[in-house]
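Hi R.,

Here's the chain you asked about this morning:
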Amino acid sequence: MQSRDVVRAWGAILEGRPPFLSLEVTRECPLRCPGCYAYEPEHIAGQLGLRTLSDFKGDQLVERALAVIDRVRPLHVSLVGGDPLVRYREMEALVPQILARGIHVQLVTSAFRAPALAWANMDHLTVVVSIDGLPAEHDVRRAPATYERILKSIEGNRVTVHCTITAQMVSRPGYLEEFLAFWTPRPEVHRVWFSLFTPQRGAVAPEILSSKQRAQVVAEITELRQRYPKLDMHPRVVPEFLKPPASPDECIFAQVTETLSADLTSRVTPCQFGGDPDCSQCGCIASMGLASIGRYKLGGVIPLGQIFNASVKIGRWRSRSKRPSTPATAALPVMPATVSDPE
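And here is the predicted structure, written out as C-alpha cells:
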C-alpha cells in the first residue's frame, strides 16, 4: 500500500465509510476445497451458508453490484465468491465499469476458466489465482482447477499467485521454495503472496499450523524473499504472522472492510472469513499488512494504530449523524464495529 493510498483510505474512514469492499458475487463454485471458509454452514451471521442465499446473473448482477459500489464509494473492491469466473460474462462487463470509477479491483479465482485476456493490460486490476501448494496436493484439493488447467487458463495474462500455507506443506522441507521455483519464472506471474491457513475457533483440521510451524514459515519466507523478488511480502509484514490481531475489534483490515455475500445485502462478519474465526491463528496476508502499518510510529512516537482508532470513532460518529431514517436494507451500514481479502 503506497503512502497516497493510506492517505486516501484515512480520508474515507474519517467520512465514516469503509475504504475496502468485498463482494461475494456468486454462490457458485465448481470446486469443493477442504477447509474453504466461504462454504462453512455458519459463514454468514453465524447461521447461514453461502449456498443458502439467492444470487444474481446477467445485467441484474452488474447493476446491483454497481449500485452497492456507488453507495459505499470504496477505494478498493474485491470480487470473490464462490468463483467470480462462474459469471465470467458479467465480470467482463463489471470490471471495466468499476475501474472507470477510479477504484482498484481485485478478482480472486481458481482459474478453472481463463480470465479475459483484455484484463492483462488494465491498470489497477489484480487477478489473483488461488493455488493450494504443489500439484500432488493442489490437484486433489482443487480439481477441476488442476495445474494443467491453470497453466492453460493464464497463458498471455498477468496474475498474482496466492497460496494458503497449510501444516501439510510445512512438514515437507523445501516445499515453499519448490513452489516459488515453479511459479516465479513464469512470465504470466507478476508476484506471489502467501497466507497461512486460518481455522474457525475450536476447529480440528490437518491444515492447522502449530506455533512452531508458524515460526518456521516466517523464517523461511524472510529468507526466500531475498532470492525470489516476485515473493511480494514486505519485511515488516511477515513477522506479523507470529502476533496476529487478538480480535476483529483490533484488526484494522476487519474494521475497514465491508463484506457482502451473494445476495449483495447480507453482511459477512466479523471479517471476510465469517462464522467464528480463531484470530489467534489468523493467517490473512491483508490483515497482517495493515497490522504492520498500524504498528508504525509516526515521528517515531505515536503508532498509526492509535490515530486509526481515533479516526474510526470520528467516522462512526459522522456516519450516525448523517444516516437517514430509511429501512435497514436501503443503505449499507458503514464502519461496523467488526467487519473484511479472499482466500
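One quick note: The chain has one domain: 22-295.

Cheers,
M.
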